[in-house]
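Long-time lurker, first post. I've been practising inverse folding by hand and with some scripts of my own, and I keep getting stuck on stretches where the C-alpha cells seem ambiguous. Below is the full C-alpha cell string for one chain I'm working on. Before anyone asks, I'm not after the true native sequence, just a reasonable design that respects the backbone. If someone could post their per-position residues I'd love to compare against what I wrote down in my notebook.
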C-alpha cells in the first residue's frame, strides 16, 4: 500500500503534471547498511514540454525525505534544486539531492520525451516523495 501511494504521489509531484509517468519500483528493499532505511529505484518519463523556453519557474515542486540520485537516460531536462539556478542535464548526466531539498524539474524539449532513473534512500516508514505546499 505504501509503495502504491508513494508512486501515485511521485507521479504528480516529480513533474508537476499528471502526464509524467513514474514506474513501479524497479528495486525496493531495506538498505543493507541500516534496516531503518529503504532503497527504491524508479524510472520517470517526462513527456514533451509545450512551454518553451523550458523553465521550472511556476512548476510545482517536491522533495524527498532522504538522499536522492538521478540519472538522465534519454532526452534533456531542466532541473532546479532549492534556490540554486536552473541547470540542464542531458542523457548520460546525473545529479544528487540532499534530504528534504526542494526540487523542480521539467522536460527541456518540446518534441522529445525524457527518461530519468532515480534512486532514493529514505527512512523506511516515509513516503518517497512529498509535494511542496505554497
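-- Answer (accepted) --
I ran through it position by position. Result:
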Amino acid at each position: 500500500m505504501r509503495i502504491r501511494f508513494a508512486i501515485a504521489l511521485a507521479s504528480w509531484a516529480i513533474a508537476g503534471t499528471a502526464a509524467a509517468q513514474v514506474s513501479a519500483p524497479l528495486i525496493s528493499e531495506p538498505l543493507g547498511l541500516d534496516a531503518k532505511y529503504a532503497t527504491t529505484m524508479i524510472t520517470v518519463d517526462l513527456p514533451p514540454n509545450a512551454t518553451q523556453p523550458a523553465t521550472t519557474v511556476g512548476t510545482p515542486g517536491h522533495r524527498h525525505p532522504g538522499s536522492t540520485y538521478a540519472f538522465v537516460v534519454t532526452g534533456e531536462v531542466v532541473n532546479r534544486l532549492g534556490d540554486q539556478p536552473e541547470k540542464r542535464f542531458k542523457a548520460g548526466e546525473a545529479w544528487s539531492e540532499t534530504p528534504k531539498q526542494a526540487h523542480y524539474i521539467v522536460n527541456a524539449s518540446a518534441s522529445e520525451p525524457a527518461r530519468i532513473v532515480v534512486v532514493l534512500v529514505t527512512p523506511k516508514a516515509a513516503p518517497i516523495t512529498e509535494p511542496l505546499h505554497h
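A couple of notes from the structure itself: The two ends are 27 Å apart (CA to CA). DSSP finds one helix and eleven strands in the chain. Happy to go over any region you disagree with.
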